[in-house]
Amino acid sequence: MQWDEFIVTGQPLVYIAMVMIVLTSAAVIFVLTYFKKWKWLWQEWLTTVDHKKIGIMYILVALLMLFRAGVDAMMMRIQLAFPDINFLNAQHYNEVFTTHGTIMIIFMAMPFLIGLMNIIVPLQIGARDFAFPFLNALSFWSLFFGAFLFNISFVIGGSPDAGWTNYAPLASAELSPGPGINYYLLGLQLSGIGTLATGINLMVTILRMRAPGMTLMKMPIFTWSTFITSFIIVFAFPILTVALALMTVDRIFGSHFFTLTGEGLPMMWANLFWMWGHPEVYIVILPAFGIFSEIIASFARKQLFGYKAMVGAIVIIAGLSFIVWVHHFFTMGAGAFVNSIFSITTMAIAIPTGVKIFNWLATLYKSKITFETPMLWSLAFIPSFTLGGVTGVMLGMAAADYQFHNSYFLVSHFHYVLIPGTVFACFAGLIFWYPKMFGHQLNEKINTWAFWLFLIGFHVTFFPQYFLGLDGMARRLFTIGPEWFTLNFISTAGAFTMGAGFIVFVFGIIYSFLKSPRNLPGDVWGVGRTLEWAAPTPVPKYNFATLPDVKSHDTLIDMKKDGDSTFDKSKLERIHMPSSTGLPFIMMTVLFFTCFFLVFEWITLTVIGLLAVIALMIVRSFDYDKGYHFEVEEIKEIENDLRGMK
Description:
Radius of gyration: 25 Å
Largest sheet: 2 strands, antiparallel
Family: Belongs to the heme-copper respiratory oxidase family.
InterPro entries: Cyt_c_oxase-like_su1_dom, Cyt_c_oxase-like_su1_sf, Cyt_C_Oxase_1, QoxB
Cofactor: ferriheme a; Cu cation
Oligomer: single chain
Order of helices and strands: HHHHHHHHHHHHHHHHHHEHHEH
Helix content: 55-70%
Strand order of the largest sheet: 1-2
Membrane topology: Multi-pass membrane protein
Distance between the termini: 67 Å
């Protein structure tokens, strides 16, 4: 391999990115060295098994990936703003829209929601930590290094360019030679290990570590949505794992699972991908529904309407999500009968989703609503998501889909579902629970500006794309004709408005860190309903000194009525906690290099890396560390300090 094949050359934008990476890396190293923070970084973050810190790291990675994929989106919108411009050439455009979609789904939406799950679910159910803290740390570093592997592709070797769906035969070694597709396959495989492990971990944590009296039907709705999402992860992700492994073997070792040569079947990839891919949509939607439910009930100051119906709707949506995948390729020749069956199941999923919409509206009905920014995001979600859902039913009609499919109508639809349904929820949940993570609130005025910029920019960006699609503009075009100029220019202006909203949001985080008051009460917003708001702010390492007997899913409301607290001195006992360990970080670092070697098909180095990973697993099996304890007097001192009782 020549040097100019290893390092991407010839693209000015990539050179700019390289300079920015070098400068940013140098700045981080300088700051850590100047302030002597390397030991702090290792002890407090790289080796932590604390679910709250792991959750924060998930969210930081997700915000960074949102910026990266957002820049990709800006580049695409610049290219499409005017007819026949050459800001991006065809190859670079293919790489950009491939990385944009993959990063937004795999490395932004899922890590953001999993981060919120990490932080909040143990607090909502009264757990000290996850059931398997070591595995939780391993899961995060798996995601981190999977994202890192995928993202270095644009400077080392070249980015994948077959779209985020990576369809065969386009993604085969014959039609897409080079390391780009290998980055896709192995980056997703590496991060998928962590996602699957997290699904198992959350499932066991929720089933086995709930507070006294908290039956399943007394769990908060966010915990319920997380619980059902964990089942989807456990059943869906092995399908993706198998598909990625088969294509990796096709590309590197010359098999023919997805090529007609050798009696393979390219359509098998589409089936396997979407058998994972549509449940994946609900992996990033159902937790968001749980976040909106918590926020709407809180700021409406009212019990969530139809709690049991909401739980039932989540279960039904999860079940139906596995039997709708063919609607992603109605036009690929499955036949009228098959298309009809999957058209019916696709439209059926709108029924439990509609139940949830009406339950949120019923919760708001005749309630005393206040308009803090988490509530603004939640209220904006309802009509925006409904528009995306209605157009989804249109696409679910197989005959009509022959007109809509692969047009910008479809592009607009899935952005109208995923941005209000997931991104709005990520912002809302982060703002809502931010004090529990960092001990201070985000500035409401700045957040309001960020909200309105992002919301207006979103609708200005994607609403015109429905009409572009109806006017015949196909997706994946890297250049436009003059007849589509006006709506595309409006769409580009909206995209930059969304970008401005994100910049304002990040500014708000920095401003709040410097200016916001500390020493906040446990129920920061004054409207909390669930157990996490009974913990002090910020939350201590052990989460709760003592736990109440849970009587309903609105635990804090019951505690206030009964005068209960999570600091009952008569119930204090020493608390066991897991020890920090650097092994997850080291293990995933080695696996990262192993996958990197396989990307370039350096088989000898790959085998050495795999043997090193197995050796580290053996080392882990002989780790008999039993953790440490918080003694009663230490707990009293911490609680008194956090609650201002000294």
